[in-house]
Amino acid sequence: QIQLVESGGDLVQAGGSLRLSCAVSGRIVSLNSMGWYRQAPGKQREFVAAQVTAGLTNYADSVKGRFTFSRDNAKNTVYLQMNNLKPEDTAVYYCNRVGNPFPWGQGTQVTVSS
């Protein structure tokens, strides 16, 4: 059973930065196709970023140039560096595998004040 544990969310002012972490535990072979999603209040969960292949990462248009996906294979952890945060980035952030998701974790709350 794969378990996803997100952390790093906080309350920040607009223009601030945060780094989210997602620890992946269980019988996982690799972190390939892992990504980040977010769900704002009253909205559907949406895609944020994912590493499609080695060296190729896709980002939602709304976060391009501000967010950076990375991973540490030795720690089975993926990260999301978020810079120049905006109030519209406020959401619960989740990590998961793209296309064939594992059971969802509890997410981590990011709140950006204006």
Description:
There is one protein chain. The protein has 114 residues and is mainly β. 0% of the residues lie in helices and 52% in strands. The protein is built from no helices and 10 strands. It has a 6-stranded mixed beta sheet with strand order 2-10-9-4-5-6, with no helix packed on it. A 4-stranded antiparallel beta sheet has the order 1-3-8-7, with no helix packed on it. The chain starts with a strand and ends with a strand. 27% of the residues are buried.
User: Please, what is the average pLDDT?
Assistant: 94
- Show unreliable segments: none
Q: Identify the strand order in the major beta sheet.
A: 2-10-9-4-5-6
The percentage helix is under 10%
Rg over C-alpha atoms, rounded to the nearest angstrom:
13 Å
In this structure, how is the largest beta sheet organized? Answer: 6 strands, mixed
Structural class: mainly beta
What is the ordering of alpha helices and beta strands? EEEEEEEEEE
Counting H and I runs of at least 4 residues, what is the number of helices?
A: 0
Question: How many strands appear in the DSSP assignment?
Answer: 10
The proportion of strand residues reads over 45%
Distance between the termini: 40 Å
The dominant shape is: globular
